[in-house]
UniProtKB/TrEMBL annotation:
Gene Ontology CC annotations of this record: plasma membrane
Keywords noted in UniProt: Cell membrane, Membrane, Transmembrane, Transmembrane helix, Transport
Protein name (Swiss-Prot/TrEMBL): DHA2 family efflux MFS transporter permease subunit
Region feature Disordered, mapped onto this chain: 508-529
Transmembrane spans: 21-44, 56-76, 88-106, 112-133, 145-163, 175-198, 210-229, 235-258, 279-301, 313-331, 343-360, 372-393, 479-498
Biological source species: Streptomyces vinaceus
Entry keyword annotation includes Transmembrane helix: yes
């Protein structure tokens, strides 16, 4: 590896300015990856109206999600092996190519295929952002920038549906994809010009773990398909779902065996020897479970039961997202000033349990003010956990494994979201159907139309059916969030076992400052401008 420039050789004036410019480019790339699905969700009815293929509608989202999840760990390893900057720029280019092709799609099959290409690039965007931040900013200082990352997430969730609706109405659905091109071009230019990281030079050409990558892809694909199709496309006990579960288990077992033999494993198993890294992976999975479940079912409850407009669905999440952003910023500042962080996963875990339990108590009489308070409590819990999990995970590995650590943490959160949406969704739908049947008799759920009606469709129902449906949605929401609260308890328990390992700082490492078995290096040294 090329010699790093020491922290002392970077002037105090140049370093902060360079870091800020790079971070701005990284945040744009992160926004691209997160904003895409939010925008496309709003445009989907118009897309189906023009291209047809309603029966394949779900694959427009599934293809993107699958490609993103499957490619995430591979992008992380490529960055570790061949250099972070090159792999990140490549992922941006692939994402932009997928966006341009998606905008030019002439039928649903083309759109699904091009969305998969887009997803491949998106996998590299997220892990690239996290790994480069891990390279540039020492964990001790990283807390100062957590609010920025949480703000980008909130902006995507709130602004996505609004931007998607506006673009679709005034420019056409194809611009939902084309809008990525100018943003991506800006990020590409800024990263190319300002980001200077040490290049991987010398030594033998690393051996690519093709077998491990293939087995991991099969395992992730099987898992995501089980959680996507189970209870919707196919019954949980169907041959298709059982078959996918078997394929997933076998491929995971084969992957674990292959990684013990590979010279350069795509996901080195030694990183899981760190107790903190393993715990952060578990907590990250549970955060994804709670967050994505909440994002899906909170707007549904407010639209169906509280009569809110679907147009402003992103704004309905404002109490949760604002509290998440503010708390994340405060936790980051405290972490930077004190170097202490163990208390935050504990507090965050407790608030997540309380928030989900309170949300489970909502019924047809719950006001928007009370549901907003409950959401704010959940958001505060997520704020204590979202960035801390990534920070501690990165602090628990050697710098050479920064990419795979970032990609693994991202992957576990993504898989947690898939499981959360699937299990909470299955429970929700089952409870809605059962309650409708109890109130109106067999076939009542069919009479209502489906388990997910918007406010406009709900208004057209007969009063007796509408009232029964609102009670059914409240019952379904109760069951879904009660499950989420139960799962969140595991995260609260896991947080107590986190070891307070000193965060690596910008200065020279002190004796005993090794990160849970990793070498305490100065990540800030990587920036050479």
């Amino acid at each position: 590896m090329a010699e790093n420039i020491s922290a002392a050789e970077i002037s105090e004036e140049v370093k902060p300015r360079s870091v800020r410019v790079v971070l701005m480019a990284l945040m744009i790339a992160m926004l691209l990856a997160m904003l895409d699905n939010m925008i496309i969700g709003t445009a989907m009815p118009t897309i189906v109206g023009e291209l047809g293929g309603l029966e394949h509608l779900s694959w427009v989202v599934t293809a993107y999600t699958l490609a993103t999840a499957a490619s995430t760990p591979i992008w992380g390893k490529i960055g570790d092996m061949y250099g972070r900057k090159g792999s990140f720029l490549t992922s941006i280019v692939i994402f932009l190519i997928g966006s341009a092709l998606s905008g030019m799609a002439q039928d649903m099959a083309q759109l699904i295929g091009f969305r998969a290409v887009q997803g491949l690039g998106a996998g590299g965007l997220m892990v690239g952002v996290m790994a480069i931040i891990g390279d540039l900013i020492p964990p001790r200082e990283r807390g100062k920038y957590q609010g920025m990352m949480a703000g980008v997430m909130a902006l995507a969730m709130i602004g996505g549906p609004l931007v998607g609706g506006t673009i679709t109405d005034h420019l056409g659905w194809r611009w939902s994809f084309y809008i990525n091109l100018p943003l991506g071009a800006v990020a590409l230019a800024m990263v190319t010009a300002v980001l200077h990281l040490p290049k991987k030079t010398g030594g033998q050409r690393p051996k690519i773990d093709y077998l491990g990558a293939a087995l991991l892809t099969v395992a992730i694909t099987s898992t995501v398909l089980v959680t996507t199709w189970g209870g919707t496309e196919y019954a949980w006990g169907s041959g298709q779902i059982i078959g996918l579960i078997v394929v997933g288990i076998v491929s995971i077992a084969a992957f674990l065996f292959a990684e013990t033999k590979a010279a350069e494993p795509v996901m080195p198993l030694h990183i899981f020897r760190s107790r903190n890294f393993t715990l952060m992976s578990v907590i990250g999975f549970l955060v994804g479970f709670a967050m994505f479940g909440g994002v899906l079912y909170l707007p549904l409850f407010q639209q169906s039961v509280q009569g809110a407009s679907a147009t402003n669905s992103g704004l309905l999440l404002l109490p949760m997202l604002l509290s998440m952003m503010v708390v994340s910023l405060i936790a980051g500042r405290v972490t930077t000033s004190s170097g202490k962080y163990k208390i935050f996963p504990i507090i965050g875990g407790a608030l997540m349990v309380v928030g989900l339990f309170l949300l489970a108590q909502m019924d047809t009489d719950t006001t928007r003010l009370m549901s907003g308070v409950y959401m704010a409590i959940l958001g505060a819990g997520l704020g204590f956990l979202m960035q801390i999990t990534m920070l501690v995970a990165q602090n628990s590995v050697d710098m050479k494994d920064m990419g795979v650590a970032s990609s693994s943490a991202t992957l576990f959160r993504t898989l947690g979201g898939s499981f959360g949406v699937a299990l909470m969704g299955s429970l929700f739908t089952s409870q809605v159907t059962q309650t409708m049947t109890e109130r109106l008799g067999p076939g009542a759920a069919t009479a209502a139309g489906s388990a997910q009606l918007d406010a406009a469709s709900l208004a057209k129902l007969k009063p007796v059916i509408r009232e029964a449906y609102q009670h059914a949605v409240a019952a379904g929401t109760h069951s879904a969030f009660l499950l989420g609260a139960g799962v969140a308890v595991l995260g609260f328990v896991a947080a107590w076992f986190v070891k307070e390992v000193p965060l690596r700082g910008a200065g020279p490492a002190k004796p005993g400052d090794e990160a849970d078995g990793s070498a305490a290096q100065s990540p800030a040294q990587s920036l050479a401008h």
